[in-house]
Amino acid sequence: MARNIQSLERAAAMLRLLAGGERRLGLSDIASALGLAKGTAHGILRTLQAEGFVEQDAASGRYQLGAELLRLGNSYLDVHELRARALVWTDDLARSSGEAVYLGVLHQQGVLIVHHVFRPDDSRQVLEVGAMQPLHSTALGKVISAYDPVAHSEVAETERKEFTARTVSGLTEFESVLDLTRARGYAEDVEETWEGVASVAAPIHDRHRMPVGAIGITGAVERVCKPDEQGVPRPELIAAVRDCARAVSRDLGASRF
């Protein structure tokens, strides 16, 4: 059985101690409460302070929780609010489209799947919540890259791997794809990430008109694309995805939808 890392346990205990108090705590208070030597406690506090998790009052020298924890907490709440607001709409989209539905957000240099609704049939499927998708080749990733400046910077500065012969990897070509995505209000991925698979996605905005994620459907090319044009998604599926994204955006407070 793997052993816990003592320094991390001590740091976590320190953060809980600071979170539980109504006042700032001094080094001696913290060391005494946790049964640590002052030197050990000071080393941990310095590390937490350098990462923004702890702040030290300049006048008193006492410690309190830092702003970085607030930022991380808000990020956690935002993702869970997004998922909660999208639950009903994603279920409806899966039923109306007959395809799997994915809700994704920017995470590091990719798209983190935070909600996944299975295709409404009897086929065997694997839950992909927590999986990562590329920014440059998936419909979800293109949408997020088109509307989120941070994602755009990430995808522009990293290598864009060619997953299939259809993957757009050149920066100039990819920028054109993002321009088209913004002009149309949706993105598509037709066998750019996985052979035989096509996707359509649209952006989700919050009450400040900020992009907070994307929602999309994924399925076999022959179902998602027009029978006479395998590289072109069916217009009714595009409309359904965009309507779903607008509905979730409205629930998050976005007004102009």
Characterise the protein shown here.
It is a single chain. This protein is an alpha+beta fold. Helices cover 47% and strands 21% of the residues. The protein has 9 helices and 10 strands. The strands form 3 sheets. Strands 5-4-3-8-7-6 form a 6-stranded antiparallel sheet, sandwiched between helices. It has a two-stranded antiparallel ribbon with strand order 1-2. Helix 5 packs across helix 7. The protein starts with 5 loop residues before the first helix and ends in a 6-residue tail after the last helix. The model has no long low-confidence stretch (mean pLDDT 89).
| Residue runs with pLDDT of under 50 for 5 or more positions | none
From the alpha-carbon coordinates, what is the Rg to the nearest angstrom?
23 Å
User: How many runs of DSSP E, i.e. beta strands?
Assistant: 10
Through-space gap between termini: 53 Å
Q: How much is the average pLDDT? A: 89
Helicity, in percent? 40-55%
Helix/strand order = HHHEEHEEEHHHEEEHEEH
Strand content: 15-25%
